[in-house]
Amino acid sequence: WTGYSRQVQPRLYEVSLNANNLRFTLLPEIRQSELQSDEAYVLDTGRQVFVWLGDEAPQHLIKSATIIANAYAGTHPADNINMYVTKQGLEPTDFTLMFDQWDPDMWKKIRDYEADRERELRDNEIDVDK
To answer: What's the whole-number average pLDDT of the chain?
Structure first.
């Protein structure tokens, strides 16, 4: 690696792409809870770069995964970096190890909680017109 230290802190970026404007926003912490199902992210470990696509990410982000990877690679200081695209629920070990605590069921738990909460709210509605 020419001119690139191996002691690089991993970084997590949120990806936004609108009207052909691609932006990488550095997130302050690398936490699984930062990964939203309707978004795309870039995780840079220093040796590898992962483009992570949430299950509910918009089609324009999914279709642009290779463009996102290549655009980020163009900003990377390493001469040669391994790039990967991964989807929610299919994360490789090298990806999940970058997070302090990884729960493969986190998104299911969130969906279950939201469904239970919605059901509870529906069951406890009060009709004030009666």
So the answer is: 86
